[in-house]
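Batch queue: ligand-bound targets. Current item pairs a single chain with zinc ion. No template structures supplied; prediction is de novo from sequence plus SMILES. Inputs echoed for audit trail.
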Amino acid sequence: MTTRRDFIKSVPAMGAAFAIAGRVYLDDAPARAQGAAPLEGHFHPKGKPPSRFTLELLKKAKGTLPFSDTRDIEEQKKGFIAPMKELKIRADAGHVAWDMERFQFLDAEEEFDSIHPSLHRQSKLNNNYGLYEVIPGIYQVRGFDLSDISFVRGKTGWIVFDPLVSGEVVRAAWELFREHVGEGLPVSAIIYSHTHGDHWGGVRGIVDEQDVRSGKIPVIAPIDFMEFTISENVYAGNAMNRRLFYQYGLLLPASPYGYVGQGLGQAVSAGASGLIAPNRYVEKPIEEFEVDGIRMVFQNTPNTEAPREMNTYIPDMKALWMAENVTSTLHNI
Ligand SMILES: [Zn+2]
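Prediction returned. Tokens below.
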């Protein structure tokens, strides 16, 4: 009899697009949404203006929330190195995998009477699209997906934290990074902070599976990562996908009357997603070991933001990576 565990071990890698953590999809709907074609039928492309109840509610929010606190805006600008110039990133299959053009309307006006001021502010922050230095030795490419990808300088190369949702956007992020910072060094390790697909789905865009299987490139994840990744994304995949369309209104056109963003990021990229199974697990509650010559302390945090998630502390850089155990945006409701 094949147990669930055996089954999971027998699927060490999955190519092609598949359901991911309530965020991705089994069909081409997000690709169509990314294409931003005006929807036909009973959806009017412009939606409809806000009712007086909405107007009242948003006015109240504007008056009571602390918009004079602009620390997020200042902090976001810190360490900016270079913007990403291309607003669209193509998928290998030919469609648009990532489209920032459709969110430019957010910066065109100070405020919209149809968008909650907090969501507008958050989405404007998410419109920042490019390469940033977090501290010397740690860089982030932001705005290429729902999540951000980070690069930490190891002894021989770059340790990649959380390679986004699809391979094409990861490749574009890696190219931007290499153009400005990369020092011509390769990827030396990958770390998946947790089981949600926006933290591993693009791994195939940056590493060759053979190099992982041979052990040349360590891929590190919290204990039971595969079991919970498969449970959420495959066994529960269809239900999660359906919820996704209601949760984010993915099929609405991006506009002041339609789709504005997802809080964490503007959208989910629509390129090719796949998984490469980790070849090293953090098994104990807290473990310390070196990754490409850099001392790291891993802390398992099961059943927090994801069923399996972990924090990483890099003592010599005084840097703490908590993935989505800490975010400054409304999340996962
Ligand atoms: Zn998550």
